[in-house]
Structure formats: structure tokens, C-alpha cells
Amino acid sequence: xxxxxxxxxxHPCNSxxxxxxxxSKQSKVQIYRLSRKRLEENVEEDMELMNLKLYLENQSIIxxxxxxxxxxxxxxxxxxxxxxxxxxKFPHLDRLSTTLLLLLQKH
Length: 107
Known about the structure:
Strand content: under 5%
Oligomer: single chain
Order of helices and strands: HH
Shape: rod-shaped
Number of domains: 1
Protein name: Protein LITTLE ZIPPER 1-like
Largest sheet: none
Number of helices: 2
Radius of gyration: 40 Å
Number of strands: 0
InterPro entries: ZPR
Structural class: mainly alpha
């Protein structure tokens, strides 16, 4: 059995113990590296998933925006046509008067 009196670098007990400690440190470092690598991979996957969700959300917003632009354009054309019609009926009124008259008729 090894005891404190037998200590020497070449003593078998000390070399085995040293190897075990060294292996233990190596394993911890390897586990730490693996854990860190897995963590980094998970973060990358999470970022990719988040980017995909944001991309799809942006596409949806772009589509909705395009629909609203088309609707606004149609409403503008309709407004111009109504204004033109109204001015034909009341040629003596200017554009501001026509607009005010239309607003008053709605209420």
C-alpha cells in the first residue's frame, strides 16, 4: 500500500494517481468542449429557426402590404371618377367646394 513515506516521482502509486488525475482533467476538457460545441450548434439551429420564422412573417407582411396598395389604388381611382362625375353635374363649383359638398352629403 502507498503511504506518505513512499513518495517519489518514480514510485508506482504516484505515477498511476497522476495518470488518473491527468485523464480526469482531459475528460472534463473534452466534455466541456463537446458541451460547448453542442450548445453552439443549438444556438445556430435556434437562430436559423428564428430567421426562418421572421422571413415567413416578412413575406406575409409584404403580401398584405401589396393587397392594401392595390385596394388604395382602386379607391383612389374610384374617388377620381366620382369627383369627375360630380364636377360634370356641378361645373360651377371648384374642387374644394365639391369635396366639401361630398363630405356634407355623407353625414
